[in-house]
Specification:
It is built from twelve helices and 21 strands. With 423 residues, it is of the alpha/beta class. The structure holds pyridoxal-5'-phosphate (PLP).
Length: 423
């Protein structure tokens, strides 16, 4: 059985650090997200040690898990933040982030979001189109400030990951075609509302090899040379996020395996004045969380058996969205119960509502299961579909724990809805 190191089995019960998950489920009910603070800290230290003594900034990719407690933890550890919306800007500021450590990515930044970020004084806008560049320059000028900008270029490399989470190919909506970047940088240089500070790319997610990054780096370095020839000097190079985690048998590289060749390439080109920025999301939080769910019903048929659980696609959307694979383990493994092959499915009225398929498990109704590696793109992608309150979230630290988001109540789900008068 695979359990992440911060989720050990002791006395026959799966724990989060020192706490039995059965106790947390009894106290808070299920479905329940449980995060390990030690796992967050360890994931952070892997990056932090890889950039020790370097001019580098690790900006946590907020959308992977945006609970304020998680953001505050990374803020305390020294992280910057990569945001993709005005909502995320408000969250990271509420968690104590320094505006000078925030970069703002995303293809569709709206006027109000740009205004808020300019007012806050963020480190950099990662601009994804010529049209956005113009809007940003106009708004900055109106506000009497200069917007720090980086162009997010699309280096046209294949990250060899799931098509839905690959972003660095020409056909993707993301970034600016690297061929068009020099001309756009020259234009940006003429716009008084802008200050060019860097270049950026983000090629995908759950990437398990280094070579796509190094391919992208080569293209970015060639661009940096071309810009220098035009008199455009950059201060930073942002390689985005995307390092993968182990869900099953993947062996993703350590951040140092990515960063060492990056620093070496910069040195070789005399570019070590450039600050390196990374935007890891999944690899900082993915294996720090589990989703607890209870078996409501077991249902058998000739062709398939189902374990119908109380978590669903609204709680953890990744399987439905990307056919993602999550390990599912009993929290208190049984002996003497018949093992069958089950699809683990939720109660939602959609055939796409499944969490895992073809799992051999000894199950009985009422059993508690843990869906592993659920710390990234779990709660943050969750919804209230079928009028299901979103799950509670708990952070564990050793033998202590905190409820960092209570379970929503049903009344909260429609509290803002209005019935118009009959006419
Ligand atoms: C989603 C995203 C990230 C984080 O990606 P991970 O795969 O979770 O590391 C970083 N940068 C940008 C621009 C993103 O959209």
């Amino acid at each position: 059985m695979t359990a992440a190191p911060h989720f050990p089995i002791r006395d026959g019960i799966l724990h989060a650090e020192n706490l039995p998950l059965t106790d947390l489920a009894d106290q808070y009910g299920s479905p329940l997200y449980v995060y390990s603070r030690a796992a967050l800290q360890e994931a952070w230290r892997r990056y932090d040690s890889a950039v020790a003594g370097r001019n580098a900034l690790i900006c946590y990719g907020v959308k992977a898990n945006s609970n304020l407690a998680v953001l505050h933890e990374f803020q305390q550890l020294g992280a910057g933040f990569d945001i993709v919306s005005g909502g995320e800007l408000a969250r990271v500021l509420a968690a104590g982030a320094a505006p000078g450590r925030i970069v703002f990515s995303g293809v569709g930044k709206q006027g109000w979001e740009i205004r808020k970020a300019l007012a806050a004084g963020i480190k950099c806008f990662n601009v994804e189109s010529a049209a956005e560049l113009e809007r940003l320059a106009d708004m900055a000028q109106e506000m009497g400030v200069r917007a720090p900008v980086s162009l997010r270029v699309n280096p046209d490399v294949d990250a060899r990951t799931h098509p839905y989470i690959s972003t660095g190919l020409k056909e993707n909506k993301f970034g600016i075609d690297i061929q068009q970047a020099p001309a756009l940088y020259r234009q940006a240089q003429q716009m008084s509302g802008l200050e060019i500070v860097g270049v950026d790319c983000h090629i995908g997610s759950q990437i398990t090899e280094i070579s796509p990054y190094l391919d992208a780096l080569d293209k970015l370095l060639a661009l940096i040379d071309a810009l220098a020839a035009d008199g455009i000097q950059l201060r930073h190079l942002d390689l985005g996020g995307g390092l993968g985690i182990r869900y099953t048998d993947e062996t993703p590289p350590h951040p140092a395996e990515l960063l060492n060749p990056v620093f070496a390439a910069l040195q070789a080109r005399g570019l070590d004045h450039l600050q390196i920025i990374l935007e890891p999301g999944r690899s900082l939080v993915g294996n720090a969380g589990v989703l607890l769910t209870r078996v409501e019903y077991l249902k058998y048929s000739d062709v398939r058996n189902f374990a119908i659980v109380d978590a669903a696609m609204n709680d953890l959307m990744r399987p439905a969205l990307y056919q993602a694979w999550h390990d599912v383990v009993p929290v208190q493994p049984r002996t003497g119960t018949r093992t069958d092959t089950y699809d683990i499915v939720g109660p939602i009225c959609e055939s796409g509502d499944w969490l895992a398929k073809d799992r051999e498990l000894p199950l009985e109704q009422g059993d508690l299961l843990a869906i592993l590696s659920a710390g990234a793109y779990g709660f943050s992608m969750s919804s209230q579909y079928n009028t299901r309150p979103r799950a509670a979230e708990v952070l564990v630290d050793g033998s202590q724990h905190w409820l960092i988001r209570p379970r929503e109540t049903v009344q909260e789900l429609y509290a803002h809805e209005r019935i118009p008068p009959r006419t």
